[in-house]
Amino acid sequence: MSSALAAAAPSDSEIALRVSGLGKRFGATVALDGADLALRHGTVHALVGGNGCGKSTVIKVLAGVHRADVGRIEVAGRTWDASDYDPRTARAAGLRFVHQDLGLFPQLSIAENVALDAGYPTATGSRVRWGALHRRVAGLLEAYEVEADPRTPVGALRPAQRTLVAICRALQDQEADQRLVLVLDEPTATLPQHESDVLLEAVRRRADKGQTVLIVSHRMPEVLGVCEDFTVFRDGRTVAALVGRRPTEQDLVRHMTGVDPAVSSDRALAPGAIRSGSPAPRAKQLRRGSSPAADPGVVLSVRGLTGGPLRGVDLDVHRGEIVGVAGLVGSGRSSLLRTVFGELPPVSGSVDVRSADGPARPTQDIGSRMDAGVALVPEDRAGEAAFADLAVRDNLTVTVRRRYWRPWGMDTRAEEADAGALVDRYGVRTASTAIPLAALSGGNQQKVVLARWLQRTPSLLLLDEPTQGVDVMSRADIYASVREAAAAGCAVLVASSDLLELCSLCDRVVVLRDGRITADVAGDDLTPDGLTALTQLTADTPPRSAAHQGAIR
Amino acid sequence: MSTTDTVPVRTDGEPGPEPRPAARDRSPATSRRLRGLAERHALLLLLVAVAAFFSFYPPSAERFATSANLNVLLGNQATVALLALAVILPLVCGYFDFSLGAVAVASTVLTAGLMSFRDLPLGVAMAAGIGLGVAVGFVNGLLVTRLGLNSFVTTLGMATLLGGLIQWYTGGQTIQAGLDPRLARFGSATLLGIPQVVYVVVVVAVLLWYLLTQTPFGRGLYAIGSNPRSAALVGIRVQRSAWTTFVLAGAIAGVVGVLALARSGSATADTGTPMLFPALAAAFLGATAVRPGFFNVVGTIIGVLFVSVAVSGLTLSGASAWASPVFNGASLLVAVGLSHYLGRSRGVRT
To answer: What's the pLDDT tens digit per position in A120-133?
Structure first.
């Protein structure tokens, strides 16, 4: 990988943005460890890497959201110390950001969205000069190839056009002599294929006219199609800077995972073929002896499921098995879980849940799925799981309210006792069960949400990003609880963007890509680097080993 | 299945920075409990203090603490108390219902009108009045929960609509003639020295208290009020439950209308606002007491008593007619401000 670094030697005059030796720690976690990045004028530059490699941190440092501990940032010849760099500096230096959440107001017109950023042109008496505004925005739209009237509400535009509006809003004060650097953070993550093609072509044409663009993306074929230079991050470090030459997808993935492609050669695409050099010992391996084969009972059986981003998912989950779902943003991880839970109606295909009492009712709503023993811990804890102002006790017993009802009222004593027992059992740190849930830390809130479901002894537990925003100690507790449930026979389906989590927690992991399951990895093949490769690559996957049946397309 | 008998003792003592929750720290918990106690009973103490003040304050002392005054006070406040109970039902789920005052008046006018214009028997007329409340609640619930319209605007529109219909139905006249005298007799009679209408309020209050605090359904309503998305994802039928609260509130408002007719012996066309606002004030005052931060039945009753005792005392002390609305408004502002300050304001969705 150092050879790749040596190849990066563009002369200083053509550098629009140079970041060198950037370091950033969050507590004990090293997010950036001497990261370098150099953008040439008028090029589209890709910043790629697996999850947690430090891409997002670099972008946040460049935007001034995070302050780096050490390093230098150089824009168009001016140099700042990274520890002395804030959002105003970023703006003054000419960096403009368009984030995945575009920050547009869908009900307002394009012209108003643009004007809210730069200010409305006014005449005497603060009257808005609508005519002037519309003419200016019409010019911008033409330059950025958005075929729309400035009066059109942004919400009525196609997704790619919306991103372009956000781009032209960000770059609207660009003048001929001043060169701005446009940073696009995951611009296509939530766009369908044809929309991202439209968007990237437009970006490409802007670059051909001299615009410098930095794209952060997970989608390899897209960046390969549009970018000229590539910087690859791994573990907070720059492992490759490929200037002016087109790597192959395998080249990039090799840099991202740090694995010599010679080992896997033409089997590079086979699931798990890319192995980590030093697999860390994992707790999972301790319980492998007692895993799924012991009981072949299929708890969840999904066939040809389509709906939302899902395009025909086949999946079986067995009793006592922990199955992970890996995939990029927009691959349909959450949709799969929510469809299984009965929240989202499938367009076609079937979801069969077998509880201990036999097949569940065919009705597909949350109530009957819960009766069948399905439990869901959603991704957005604050928005979809917590009752922040209700007591911890109420948060725990909400899934089993009917248990405590007697004709003379609720049996609050039993409720209190059960809540206290759950708090002790799942290690929730709280002064009492009567205080509001909001008073607890994120990790403890998550334990409450998990305990809420585990007390029902579910036959199928669906976990969506179970440890997002959870501290390390609570994380260990949560893993222990999930493993305990699985050991007792609960089937577990975990969707996570944390590949290390999937590898350490799961018996096997299925990879969702473009709404289909494209790989099914188990055993020693299950490594974060292998999963990174499988979630990133797009080429067709050859048939995998026959360890598990029925889950591969 | 209860979890108590299946809890193994955790022995895998991972070293943690904090003690296990079993070893709970006593002193902060005690002080919190004391503060909570004070917070829960502040409104009740205030009510006692105000009552004591007017019992000894010379200008009002003579007439305030008499059974006659108490009877008038309770009897006149029965309708407001009942309307306040209706108001808290949708509020628990996070929805306003501004139409309940108009529903009560519409029920009064319809009940009176059916007896006066159509010579229908009392039972049928009362059923029609209450049924009207149910129907309006049903429509409100449909619009707000199924179609997702803003409850604030929807029920305000419904209130305005009903106000117009009331004007049309009565022609702006007071309906007095042809009413069944039994109704007025019920409205003025006392039982064990207390106006009979008060017993209606007590019965409804007990039923509502049971529903809200002693049933899984009621627990679900508070969960919806806390976070409707979370509630849906733990299997609570959010739309159906919230809809039910609108229908129940409408039914209670219909009863309020019949009681108001029994108390006053006549039906006057008005918009219902003069009755709704004190009821709302009581509901919000009540949310600062007993279970602070949450709309609750006992707190609401205390809220009604607090406002009416204070207003009665002020009136007997010779304060002018404007004192009552000023006190109502001021106490509402203080109540809302207090619950916000206490950090428990739950941001009712409008």
So the answer is: 888 777 788 888 88
- Burial environment of residue B39 by CB neighbours within 10 A (0 to 12, 13 to 18, 19 or more): middle
Whether residue A463 lies within 8 A of chain B, CB to CB, comes out as: no
Number of domains into which chain A is organized: 4
CA A504 to chain centre: 18
3-state secondary structure of A450: helix
pLDDT digits (tens, 9 = 90+) for A175-184: 655 678 889 8
How far, in Å, CA of A516 to CA of A128, rounded? Answer: 51
What average pLDDT does the structure give for chain A?
Answer: 79
- Which CATH architecture group holds B42-345? Orthogonal Bundle (1.10)
Flag if A409 and B214 touch (Cβ within 8 Å). Answer: yes
Reduced to 3 states (helix: H, G, I; strand: E, B; else coil), residue B117 is helix
Strand partners, A17: A39, A75
- Contact status, residue A148 vs residue A138, Cβ threshold 8 Å: no
Given A436, A454, A472, which residue is the final one in a domain? Answer: A454
CB–CB contact A455 B16 (8 Å): no
- Do A164 and A222 sit in the same domain of this protein? no
Ranking A341-350, B11-20, B39-48 by mean pLDDT, the lowest is B11-20
Break chain B into its structural domains and give their ranges: 42-345
pLDDT value at position B130?
95
Q: Assign A81 to helix, strand or coil.
A: strand
Evaluate if pTM is beyond 0.90. Answer: no
Instruction: Search chain B and give the residue with CA nearest A474.
Output: B16
Q: Does B237 touch chain A (CB under 8 A)?
A: yes
- Asked if the Cβ–Cβ distance from B14 to A476 is below 8 Å, we say yes
The model's pLDDT over B283-342, given as tens digits with 9 standing for 90+, comes to 888 888 888 778 899 999 998 998 888 888 888 887 788 877 888 788 878 877 776 666
Model confidence over A166-215: pLDDT tens digits? 888 888 877 655 678 889 888 877 777 777 888 888 888 888 888 889 99
Three-state DSSP at A270 gives: coil
Interface of A with B in 341-380 (CB under 8 A): 341, 343, 366-367, 370, 376, 378
The residue segments making up the domain with residue A169 are 102-177
User: Is residue A212 within a helix (H) or strand (E), and if so which, with residue range?
Assistant: strand A212-216
Q: Which helix (H) or strand (E) holds B88?
A: helix B67-92
Residues A68 and A183 reside in one and the same domain: yes
Residues A353 and A290 both lie in one domain: yes
Q: Looking at the structure, do residues A290 and A400 belong to the same domain, yes or no?
A: no
- The answer to whether residue A428 is domain-embedded is yes
Is it the case that residue B2 has pLDDT exceeding 50?
no
Is residue A525 one of the residues assigned to a domain? yes
Residues A72 and A90 in one domain: yes
Same domain, A192 and A330: no
Collect all residues of chain B within an 8 Å Cβ-Cβ radius of residue A367.
Answer: 235, 237
Interface residue A402 vs chain B (CB under 8 A):
yes
Question: Phi-psi region for residue A52, left (φ > 0), alpha (ψ -120 to 50) or beta?
Answer: left
Residue that is written with structure tokens 């009525």 in the block? A156
Residue type, B174: T
**Domain annotation covers residue A256:** no
Chain B residues with CB under 8 Å of A370 CB are 235
Of A195, A215, A247, which residue sits at a domain end?
Answer: A247
Q: Count A/B contacts: CB-CB distance under 8 Å.
A: 111
Question: Is residue A204 in a domain?
Answer: yes
At A30, which helix (H) or strand (E)?
strand A29-40
What lies within 8 Å, CB to CB, of B59 at 6+ separation is B316, B317, B318
With an 8 Å Cβ cutoff, are A410 and B213 in contact? yes
More confident residue, A328 or B130: B130
A358 and A464 inside one domain: yes
CA A405, CA A20: separation in Å to the nearest integer?
64
Q: Per the structure block, which two tokens stand in for A394?
A: 């109420």
For residues A294 and A358, state if they share a domain. Answer: yes
